[in-house]
Amino acid sequence: MKILVIEDEKELAQDMVKYLSNEQYLCEWVSEYRIALEKINTYEYDCILLDLMLPGGDGLSLLEELKNSNKQDGVIIISAKNSIEEKVKGLKLGADDYLAKPFHQAELAARIESLIRRKQFDSNNLIVHNELSIEIHAKTVSVHNKQVNLTKKEYDLLLFFMGNKNRVLSKGALAEHLSGDFADMFDNHDFVYAHVKNLKRKLREKNYGDYIKTIYGTGYKWEA
Predict the structure, then answer these.
(1) What pLDDT, on the 0 to 100 scale, is given for residue 185?
(2) 178 vs 183: which has the higher pLDDT
(3) Pairing between strand 140-143 and 132-135?
(4) Pick from 70, 75, 26, 71: which is nearest to 51 by CA?
(5) What's the rounded Cα separation, in Å, for the pair 207 and 221?
(6) Percent of the chain with pLDDT over 90
(7) Does domain 126-222 have CATH number 1.10.1200.10?
(8) What distance in Å separates the CA atoms of residue 205 and residue 50, rounded to the nearest whole number?
(9) What is the spatial distance between Cα 174 and Cα 164, in angstroms, rounded to a whole number?
């Protein structure tokens, strides 16, 4: 799962990135409005953690940009501005949640998990597709009630497929989801093929129904 932290307080941002990285999230951090705008216009994120006061602009303008672009990135406002007016304005502009500073990192992680579960899986903690089950909170996967040991990348890949059933996902989109903006640094997307191959192999060993289909010349699709 990919998180964008938009926060100009360096120490707080580093604490969030460290904690969330330990929770197995892929985190990117920006501290200026201009760079944040470039990020949200170029990439997609499972969750954006948005401070309202930024050098060069404000977070509400970024929310307006997301709304005008019809993007579906989840947004949690994190701000010292705890007035009702700011909170209501942010939620009306499309934010999914609001967390006032200071906050505990564990609460932030719980809010992120809840948001992702709500947006992608209708608030379910247990995702079931025929013989395959995923427990979001425990981050475990099983097929025919037998646990499948996946790496973080493979688990993220599986959730991404499950959250985009019957949609063709390009190798570029999968590369971005797995590696963030670092995907631009790779000459090719062979690493995507390797992760998909390993994920399919591990699921196949447990006799799952082979729902991940290769769309030659394009990418992959989870056929529900």
Answers:
(1) 47
(2) 178
(3) antiparallel
(4) 75
(5) 19
(6) 37
(7) no
(8) 42
(9) 11
Contact, 189 vs 206, CB < 8 A? no
The predicted-structure confidence for 117-137, as pLDDT tens digits, reads as follows: 777 776 677 888 889 999 887
CA atoms of 144 and 97, how far apart (whole Å): 36
> The tokens of 113 are what?
């998990």
CATH class of domain segment(s) 2-121:
alpha beta
Cβ(46)–Cβ(74) below 8 Å: yes
Q: Which residues contact 214 (CB under 8 A, 6 or more apart)?
A: 220
Q: State how far the alpha carbon of 123 is from the alpha carbons of 1, 30, 117, 120, in Å.
A: 16, 29, 5, 8
Residues of the chain within CATH 1.10.10.10 domain(s) are 126-222
**Average pLDDT rounded to a whole number, residues 143-164:** 89
In the chain, where does the domain assigned CATH 3.40.50.2300 lie?
Answer: 2-121
User: Are the C-beta atoms of 49 and 7 separated by less than 8 Å?
Assistant: yes
Q: Strands 47-50 and 74-79, how do they pair?
A: parallel
Q: Which among 58, 35, 62 is positioned nearest to 48, based on CA atoms?
A: 62
Average pLDDT over the chain, rounded to an integer: 86
Range from 68-77, 167-176, 195-204 that averages highest in pLDDT: 195-204
* Contact in structure between 177 and 163 (CB atoms under 8 Å): no
Amino acid at 112: I
Cβ neighbours of 129 (radius 10 Å): 15
Q: How far apart are CA 190 and CA 175, in angstroms?
A: 9
